[in-house]
Design goal:
The structure holds two protein chains of two kinds.
Chain A: H1 2-25, E1 30-37, H2 44-53, E2 55-62, H3 65-73, E3 81-82, H4 86-94, E4 98-99, E5 128-141, E6 164-167, H5 170-180, H6 190-203, E7 207-211, H7 214-220, E8 226-230, H8 231-240, E9 244-247, E10 255-263, H9 269-279, H10 282-292, H11 299-304, H12 307-310, H13 335-347
Parallel strand pairs in A: 1-2, 1-3, 6-7, 6-8
Antiparallel strand pairs in A: 3-10, 4-10, 5-8, 5-9, 5-10
Helix pairs in contact in A: 5-6, 6-13, 7-8
Chain B: H1 8-29, E1 31-34, E2 37-40, H2 43-48, H3 51-83, H4 85-88, H5 92-98, H6 105-116, H7 121-128, H8 140-165, H9 168-176, H10 181-210, H11 213-219, H12 226-237, H13 240-264
Antiparallel strand pairs in B: 1-2
Helix pairs in contact in B: 1-13, 3-8, 3-10, 6-11, 8-10, 8-11, 9-10, 10-13, 12-13
Classes of the chains: A alpha/beta, B mainly alpha.
């Protein structure tokens, strides 16, 4: 028995030694950890970046802004680049979680449409580079809904009991209820927030499921008549199932921007900036927008798009469509109330 | 060959991955972080007694109980058949029962989603037979079905192993004395297999009451169970204190259940800790 242990110990030390030597052998490749939304990039772009700059990219995905925030805030993750949305960027700036970007290293920033610069979440353009933008609206199946869809109220119509998909995301779903009631989706008024909670609880029996990315397949296969979706998912699903259509309700909605940021504590800021710059190259930005279907803020990439997509109001809505739309604010002082409301909505029966 | 030093790596393992996390859980349960620092509190525990969260807890326990009963009703006869004369020589049937467990249970649960969904296989068969279309996915039934499907082997296997180890001569003796099959079953087989039944119940009830992925995939996020509530507090809301408090209450409930089970399980068939 003793002999067995000795042999085992010897093996273990040999293995460790080999491990250390192997580490010395080749020059260590730089590593970049990227944290992005699921289904939100043409993955071949990453391979190309790795080859071009000789950097290893470790690519992880998340499903909601809140999930990403909790993971990074918890300190368990050491990502270099992340892709949060507007309100989350504002919150992360306020909490000192982001690193300022040196824009001299991101020359391709010049391709970003002026409309997406100096937005309230990053007023001086120091921390973020826009990646995609879009709206939240109703995706509906024309075969199952024969009336015109133009209001959030249809999601509270008994006729569509168990035919409605809602987003499993606190800000988005509470925002829908607030807009339906005619309030701002950045309300700090607790009374309005309570009304939104009551509305969501009242709506619950009509809802088939609260979903994330699954909504795309479910709507394509006709599992439900109506769904609250992000515009990019609408473009993708419309392509797969021509019976589907997308509308930004007349009460207004959320207009959002997802941007690339560098996280505090990054060990490889230069590589992070190279990555962001690479993503803004017109050809790369075009491939991403073409692959995932979301709308690009990159002016050069937009020129390469099929005119049919450019004229599609789902992807590139008119100013008239965006009239009542708002961008989310961070609401750091009352965000706990939003979280509580969402927990109670989900727990209610 | 009994050398206690072999146990040390296991002890270290347990300390790091079981004891320390448990203390962290206690710490988060009974503290709150304010601007002045950290102080002790019972507010998280109190919050669970709000009717809203209590209902979630009760619903989880109810669904887990239904799942356990259904598993027992299906599992016992199956174990009896598997351990019977016809099959005990031939292990193929038992193997067939175990093989699905080699596939990740997430994958199997996703498969149920496409079976139960609208325009899914079951829906298509109903349509073919000109029966009305039924919404199965995203209901309580789907959640219970998913749980029973996933946890049934945990009920069958302990009962099966007790039944195969049972001394057959006792049964033969009873038959010699004129007992019919029902009497043998009632007076000998069932009482002797009770330890297996108890550990089967524990092994099904525990994962059923804490599951969150089955209820999310098949329940569609509106039938939230206690596991989902905990997951949500950690992953989405980031309120670790409340999440820990719910976990703490759940742990206490499970410990009490195991304590009760222990009273009936004299044989240490597994599952019990007291």
């Amino acid at each position: 028995m003793k002999k067995v242990f000795r042999v085992f110990g010897l093996l273990l030390s040999v293995m460790t030694l080999v491990g250390i030597l192997a580490g010395c052998g080749s020059a260590p490749k730089a590593q970049l950890k990227v944290y992005n939304w699921g289904d939100y990039i043409d993955e071949s772009v990453i391979d190309e970046f790795e080859k071009k700059y000789n950097i290893d990219v470790i690519y992880d995905t998340f499903a909601t802004n809140e999930e990403m925030y909790v993971k990074i805030k918890g300190g368990g993750a050491d990502y270099d680049v992340a892709f949060p949305s507007d309100y989350m960027i504002e919150r992360m700036i306020k909490e000192g979680m982001l690193e300022k970007i040196d824009f001299n290293n991101v020359p391709n920033y010049k391709y970003i449409d002026e409309r997406f610069k100096n937005l309230p979440y990053d007023p001086n353009n120091e921390y973020s580079v826009p990646y995609m933008w879009g709206t939240v609206g109703i995706l509906y199946n024309k075969k199952m809904v024969d009336e015109p869809v133009d209001s959030w109220k249809i999601l509270w119509d008994e006729k569509y009991k168990k035919q409605i998909f809602m987003l499993d995301s606190s800000r988005d779903s509470i925002g829908v209820a607030l807009k339906m009631l005619g309030y701002s989706l950045n309300t700090r008024n607790m009374d309005e927030l309570e009304q939104a909670k009551e509305a969501l609880i009242k709506q619950k029996p009509l809802v088939l499921s609260y979903v994330g990315d699954e909504v795309k397949d479910a709507m394509i296969s006709g599992q439900a008549a109506l769904a609250v979706v992000w515009s990019g998912d609408a473009i993708y699903t419309k392509r797969e199932n021509p019976d589907l259509d997308y509308v930004i309700p007349k009460e207004g909605s959320n207009m959002w921007v997802d941007a690339m940021v560098i996280l505090k504590g990054t060990k490889n800021k230069k590589a992070a900036e190279q990555f962001i710059n690479f993503m803004c190259e017109p050809e790369i930005a075009f491939r991403n927008t073409d692959y995932i279907g979301y709308s690009t803020p990159n002016t050069e990439a937009r020129k390469m798009l099929d005119p049919e997509i450019l004229n599609d109001r789902t992807a590139y809505p008119t100013d008239e469509d965006l009239k009542n739309c708002e961008v989310f604010e961070a609401l750091s002082d009352v965000i706990k109330e939003y979280d509580r409301v969402w927990t109670e909505v989900k727990a209610a029966r | 060959m009994r050398r206690t030093c072999y146990a040390y790596p296991y002890l270290v393992w347990m300390a790091i991955f079981i004891v320390v996390p448990l203390f962290l859980l206690l710490f988060y349960t009974f503290t709150v972080t304010t601007h002045e620092g950290i102080r002790l509190t019972l507010e998280h525990i109190k919050r669970i007694w709000e009717p809203l969260y209590l209902m979630v807890l009760l619903r989880s326990i109810l669904l887990a109980l239904i799942c356990t009963v259904v598993c027992l009703l299906i599992g016992y006869p199956v174990a009896l058949i598997l351990s019977g004369k016809e099959y005990s020589q031939n292990k193929v049937l038992a193997l067939l029962f175990v093989i699905p467990m080699w596939i990740n249970f997430l994958v199997r649960t996703y498969a149920w989603m496409s079976l139960l969904g609208r325009n899914g296989l079951i829906d298509m068969v109903m349509e073919f037979l000109h029966l009305p279309s039924v919404q199965l996915l995203y209901t309580d039934h789907a959640v219970v079905l998913g749980m029973v499907y996933n946890f049934l082997p945990f009920m069958v296997l302990p009962i099966y192993s007790v039944l195969t180890k049972m001394d057959k001569s006792i049964i033969e003796a009873a038959q010699d004395l004129g007992a019919d099959y029902i009497t043998v079953l009632k007076r000998i087989i069932i009482p002797l297999s009770l330890p297996g039944v108890i550990s089967g119940i524990t092994m099904v009830f525990m994962p059923a009451v804490t599951t969150f992925i089955i209820s999310r995939l098949l329940g569609g996020g509106q039938y939230i169970l206690i596991g989902n509530l905990i997951e949500q507090q950690f992953i989405v809301v980031g309120d670790w204190h409340f999440g820990s408090a719910i976990s703490f209450v759940l742990t206490v409930i499970i410990l009490i259940t195991m304590g009760i089970m222990r009273k009936y399980d004299k044989e240490y068939e597994g599952g019990a800790i007291w």
